[in-house]
Amino acid sequence: MAALRAGLLGLGMMGRHHARILRDVDGVDLVAVADPGGDPHRVATGLEVLPDVASLIDAGIDLAVVAIPTRFHADAAFALADAGVHTLVEKPIADDAETGHRLAAAFEARGLVGAVGHVERFNPALQQLRSRLAHGDAGDVYQIATRRQSSFPGRIGDVGVAKDLATHDIDLTAWVAQATYASVSAQTAHKSGRAFEDMISITGRLRNGIIANHIINWLSPMKERVTVVTGERGTFIADTATGDLTFFANGTVPLEWETVSSFRGVSEGDVTRFAFAKKEPLRAELEAFRDAVRGDVTELSSMAAAAHTLEVVESALQSAVSGGELLATGRATD
Length: 334
Known about the structure:
The protein has nine helices and 16 strands. Strands 14-13-12-11-7-10-9-8-16 form a nine-stranded mixed beta sheet. Helix 4 runs antiparallel to helix 9. The chain is globular, with a radius of gyration of 21 Å. The chain folds into two domains: about 5-120 and about 280-300, NAD(P)-binding Rossmann-like Domain (Rossmann fold); about 125-275 and about 310-325, Dihydrodipicolinate Reductase, domain 2 (2-Layer Sandwich), CATH 3.30.360.10. It has helices spanning about 15-20, 55-60, 75-80, 95-110, 125-135, 160-175, 260-265, 280-295, 305-320, and strands spanning about 5-10, 30-35, 50, 65, 85-90, 115, 140-150, 180-190, 200-205, 210-215, 220-230, 235-240, 245-250, 270-275, 300, 325. By secondary structure, it is of the alpha/beta class. This is Gfo/Idh/MocA family oxidoreductase. Keywords: NAD. InterPro entries: Gfo/Idh/MocA-like_OxRdtase_N (IPR000683), Gfo/Idh/MocA_Oxidoreductases (IPR051450), GFO_IDH_MocA-like_dom (IPR055170), NAD(P)-bd_dom_sf (IPR036291).
């Protein structure tokens, strides 16, 4: 089978990692790169740095990765769709959900793979978690809570923490639970003097009844990437920064110490830290993109799913302004 000819639009912080991995994925040849800002990380390595998406298309590519600022996603992706190029766009899919849905429709109408880089789907801890939840290891799932905190990345200037980081947590929660959001409410804070929010706290409910909670900010000197799933049989904790998954089982041994028993309710059981293979998530995502172009079914986030994720985030931001709970489509609840 001939190798797929790949193009990369954007050679910034994310683009440099895409370039590194695309050169090493079996069945893919990185044949063209483009960035109007040049090659600040010197990753072109033997390839001419083209000025724009049109010149990238002219290089005769089969698939493309778009890793440029959010405000430019839509124009680049529409051009690639018109040219018949399978495309993976870094998250968020676009500036707004409406544009995201139009992008999804454009790729679907042309029979092209249109995907979005919600890379947490390929985190080994979350893949293990999703599988174990599907097999009933936690029993009925009650709540999924995430924490995603770090200092502000200076390269992000066109969106706030909700569209940049909360999209990860919204997508991974819906994917792990295999259910979309029914409603959300949120509070935001602006503490760094920027036009966009740098802190958001989101509460929601999925359509299968699971409660979701997300704490996300760019105001912490500590980097944290944690997903906690609480169910009838115990609690899973996935550390997506390290790819570790731990299960805290509910106790099955009766507590004879009356004071402790009455205070705790659910007793402590065995704690298991699972061992499993850990592939770099971005590599796994790009391999899945290759496989999707070849016609395989993968766990990639479709553009339609990514547009729904953006709808949820937009509803959360609207809720923070209005002070009420909203449906995931942005309508106030009764």
